[in-house]
Design a protein that fits this description.
Layout (H helix, E strand, L loop, with lengths): L3 H6 L8 H6 L15 H7 L26 H17 L4 H24 L35 H11 L8 H12 L10 H20 L4 H12 L1 H17 L3 H16 L6 H5 L2 H11 L5 H26 L6 H31 L7 E2 L2 H11 L6 H5 L4 H16 L4 E2 H14 L7 H23 L3 H25 L8 H9 L7 H8 L3 H15 L16 H10 L2 H8 L8 H17 L9 H22 L3 H22 L1 H8 L8 H9 L7
Antiparallel strand pairs: 1-2
Helix pairs in contact: 4-6, 4-7, 7-8, 8-9, 8-31, 9-31, 11-27, 11-30, 13-29, 14-24, 14-29, 15-21, 15-22, 15-24, 16-18, 16-20, 19-20, 20-21, 25-27, 28-29
Length: 688
């Protein structure tokens, strides 16, 4: 009885066309081989195509020559022969590949013609050239052969015979030889040489096994590529999953990796839908979370909230160094920082003016006309309403004008430089950030400025050096005045430190002016306490969701409050983005993770109405399963129970970190693939 597999792939032993016989399963080829006379022909006769395997699966040669006993020594020798010939054939791979491509249309068309009973056509592309076609009798290597790579395999067989290596004569030996013959193809897989060798050997052995079973060359090649290409098939399947869930391209994988890295930096992990950003997976997670058996989904939601809260607590504790993070402590720190800054500014001003005094004699006469003019202006009542406006003049200013005028008259219209300098200091000490008489306080600030102008003019008359020193001191003072006024509008507020904290942070959504002023006035430890207090309050859950201790963290609340802070205020309070390892970098990773959770539908409301309805549906499923059992319908009961079990398995897969890692990877062709393909191309001349 004929074998339809052989009939389909074989081109017919009686065709007489050697090119066709190369691809045929060739039942009549082996009996013509004489191993004792022609080593080359004997080698090719050992091929599965030319071993005398008939359509019925019997071996014609076995009736003439008994098969030798398979021993470890013979197997090792056959493998050595295969490895040697496989290595020798590597150089001819390009030629074999070109020949295989040229013959492909001929093979396919003749296979179809045989299947439908149509006459075959001639191969117009030409047959494979015989490596020893120009040499009659047993093959013997010639010196000229070594510039013809297509002859190297036959030379390898010749030297293998001379070395006494056995030729494959049994199916097992032929399979071993073909597997070993594919091993050298591993040189084409430098990234994975071991895998390339193993999978190439698997492909070669499987191809020969198909030949032993009576299949034709096409089926043999398909079998070899399938067996050797299992890693590539697996990689392709994984790549298909990635394409469906996250999209294609390196950018898609990079986006998944970035989300996962941000989550890891925040101490938590993501589900498959969250990591990929896939709307499909997020919908699946949402549906799974609302069904019975969704324990892993809900556990993941709870774990994420807890770990993110713990991560924020860690940031707060690291910044605060054990101090309480309340508006009271933060406001007090701001007051201390402002007081220290004011003292430092006064010290810097004293040093600057001290340089002027070193260049100007204490007795140097100084005109204070500008100061007197300002006092007259401040103390003079408005014409036409002298009585009314005169009562509004500050007694302090009126008395100061009177006394200064008397001192100037006594000193001949001027004041000594030292006296004018001390007067300015006395006026400066009267200026208060929280004055009891605001009108007088404003007047004192104006007088301080005018007296500074008079002192600078007097120093300029002494020398250019004194003029420069006086100008620098005055510039420093004016800059400090502006800074003091900005601080005064925030710190030392009525209402205590809490009011100071409120004043400093109330404008965060509008810009960085206030918070920049405060941060510049605080030392590093004071700054960290303020940062810790702000961060601690960003994620505090609403009153209805808060515990008695007030320590419940709400990711949505944190993200919402963070988004309300202006970018420039974030820079001023927490530092600029883009510096790995600092506070702002950690907060950016945290908020990116929170955004990922917010955008995901799966865990948006894991214990909400949808979940309750899902659990009720699950109870209904279990009740239905019990009823089906009681009424004699076990199949229906199994189906209902299987829904719950299946959802439990699905939800566990969705939250498994290994799933996320798989989806984040870049799909790559296994390094062994080139070696596997090359080993299959290398079978071409063996089947002549």
């Amino acid at each position: 009885m004929s074998d339809p597999r052989t009939d389909f792939f074989a081109s017919g032993a009686a065709s007489g066309d050697p090119r066709t016989d190369f691809f045929a399963s060739g039942a009549a080829a082996a009996p013509q081989a004489n191993a004792s006379d022609d080593a080359r022909t004997a080698y090719f006769a050992s091929n599965g195509q030319n071993t005398g395997v008939s359509a019925g699966g019997s071996t014609a040669a076995s009736s003439e020559t008994p098969e030798p006993q398979e021993t470890a020594g013979r197997i090792a020798g056959v493998a050595a022969r295969g490895a040697a010939t496989g290595g020798a054939g590597l150089a001819a791979l390009p030629l074999r590949g070109a020949q295989a491509v040229a013959h492909l249309p001929f093979i396919v068309e003749n296979a179809v013609r045989r299947a439908i009973g149509a006459p075959e056509i001639q191969d117009i592309a030409g047959g494979y050239p015989s490596a020893a076609g120009t040499q009659a009798g047993p093959y013997k290597p010639q010196l000229s052969d070594f510039v013809h790579p297509e002859k190297w395999q036959e030379a390898a067989h010749y030297f293998a015979d001379k070395a006494g290596l056995p030729q494959a004569q049994t199916p097992t030996e032929r399979i071993v030889q073909k597997g070993a013959e594919a091993l050298p193809s591993a040189v084409l897989a430098p990234e994975a040489p071991i895998a390339g060798a193993l999978w190439s050997a698997a492909g070669g052995a499987t191809s020969q096994a198909a030949a032993e079973a009576g299949y034709g060359p096409v089926a043999q090649t398909v079998a070899g590529l399938t067996a050797g290409g299992l890693p590539a098939i697996g990689a392709g399947a994984a790549g298909g999953v990635r394409a469906i869930t996250r999209g294609v391209g390196e950018s898609a994988g990079a986006a998944v990796a970035a989300r996962q890295a941000a989550a890891e930096a925040s101490g938590t992990s993501l589900t498959a839908g969250q990591a990929t950003g896939s709307k499909l997976l997020q919908k699946v997670e949402s549906l799974s979370g609302n069904m019975w058996g969704s324990g892993p989904i809900h556990a993941a939601a709870e774990t994420q909230a807890n770990t993110l809260g713990e991560h924020v607590d860690g940031i707060v504790k690291n910044l605060s160094q054990g101090e309480e993070t309340t508006p009271t402590t933060a406001g007090a720190a701001m007051n201390r920082g402002a007081a220290d800054t004011r003292a430092a500014m006064k010290q810097a001003e004293a040093e600057a003016y001290g340089k002027v005094e070193a260049l100007v004699s204490p007795q140097q006469p100084i005109s204070v006309k500008s100061t007197l003019d300002k006092l007259n202006e401040l103390a003079a009542p408005t014409p036409g309403a002298e009585a009314t406006t005169g009562a509004l003049v500050s007694p302090t200013i009126a008395k100061l004008r009177e006394n200064l005028a008397a001192d100037v008259e006594q000193n001949g219209g001027t004041l000594p430089y030292s006296a004018a300098r001390q007067l300015r200091s006395a006026i400066g000490n009267q200026i208060s950030p929280l004055p009891s008489d605001p009108a007088a306080n404003r007047a004192l600030k104006q007088l301080y400025g005018m007296l500074s102008d008079d002192l600078r003019a007097g120093a300029s008359a002494v020398s250019p050096e004194a003029q420069t020193a006086a100008g620098s001191a005055d510039a420093l003072y004016k800059a400090n005045v502006a800074r003091r006024e900005a601080l005064d509008s925030i710190v030392d507020k009525a209402g205590g430190p809490e009011a100071v904290y409120q004043a400093a942070t109330s404008g965060l959504k509008n810009g960085a002016t206030k918070i920049s002023t405060v941060m510049s006035a605080m030392n590093p430890d004071q700054q960290k306490l303020l940062q810790a207090t702000v961060i601690n309050r960003l994620g505090r859950a609403a009153a209805g969701q808060q515990s008695a201790e007030g320590d419940v963290f709400n990711p949505s609340t944190f993200l919402g409050n963070w988004s309300k802070i202006a970018p420039e205020a974030k820079d001023a309070l927490f530092g600029r983005s883009g510096n790995p390892g600092d506070l702002r970098s950690g907060l950016d990773s945290l908020t990116k993770t929170l955004e990922t959770l917010r955008n995901s539908q799966a865990l948006r409301n894991p214990s909400g109405t949808g979940a309750v309805l899902g659990h009720l549906a699950g109870v209904g499923e279990i009740g239905g399963a019990v009823w089906s059992l009681l009424t004699g319908h076990p199949a229906a009961a199994a189906a209902l129970a299987g829904t719950t079990v299946g959802n439990a398995v699905l939800s566990r897969w969705l939250v498994n970190p290994k799933t996320v890692k798989l989806l984040a990877e870049t799909t790559k062709l296994p390094g062994s693939t080139p070696a596997v393909v090359a080993s299959q191309l290398g079978r071409g001349t063996d089947e002549e």
